[in-house]
Amino acid sequence: MSNEIHKGHCQCGAVTIEAAGPPNWTGTCHCTDCRRATGAAMAAFAGFDAGKVTISGDAFKEYESSPGTYRGFCATCGSRLTFRSTKWAGELHIHTGALDDANKFAPQGNAYTKEKLEWVVLEPDLPAFSTFAGDEG
Questions:
Q1: Of 85, 112, 81, which is closest to residue 97 (Cα–Cα)?
Q2: Helical ranges in 11-135 per DSSP H
Q3: Phi, psi for 128 (deg, rounded to 5)
Q4: Which of 53, 73, 96, 114 has the fewest CB atoms within 10 Å around its CB?
């Protein structure tokens, strides 16, 4: 994945994404906010340096879901596309399901498992963090 360009788009195609090279990390988030934002049991992300990501399309919008936290989506079809936070300045998290080569982005770990739905079974070989990786304590 080192020199690859990873392409993706929203459901209707009004917004496109290109990310260069390998992600810094991949993982799932089980927090209530991510679940509500996606309507899914968890959100799967690949974290890229923001400078390596290009988002095109006038339909791309962001919503500040909490102070310093922005969730990107297509204003036409509603597809969730990105997450960024001042906590990880310079990084953009792309929802892996929006990428054409999503199979290449298997999660390396699970975050916010303290809010995980009871019926979700975690992969036993992956690290699990009760909050965000690095925030344990």
A1: 81
A2: 32-38
A3: -130, 130
A4: 114
Task: Round to whole Å and give the CA distance between 66 and 137.
Answer: 23
Nearest to 132 by CA among 87, 91, 102, 101: 87
**DSSP tag of 1:** -
Gap between the Cα atoms of 104 and 113, Å rounded: 23
What does each C-alpha distance from 129 to 2, 68, 107 come to in angstroms?
27, 22, 13
Structure-token match 């799967």, residue found: 44
114, amino acid identity: K
Helix (H) or strand (E) holding 131: none
Domains of the chain, with CATH numbers? 5-100+107-115 (2.170.150.70)
Dist CA 91 CA 137 (whole Å): 23
What is the distance between the alpha carbons of residues 49 and 112, in angstroms, rounded to a whole number?
Answer: 22
What are the tens digits of pLDDT across the range 4-49? 999 999 999 999 999 999 999 999 999 999 999 999 999 999 999 9
Q: How confident is the model at residue 135 (pLDDT cuts 50, 70, 90)?
A: low
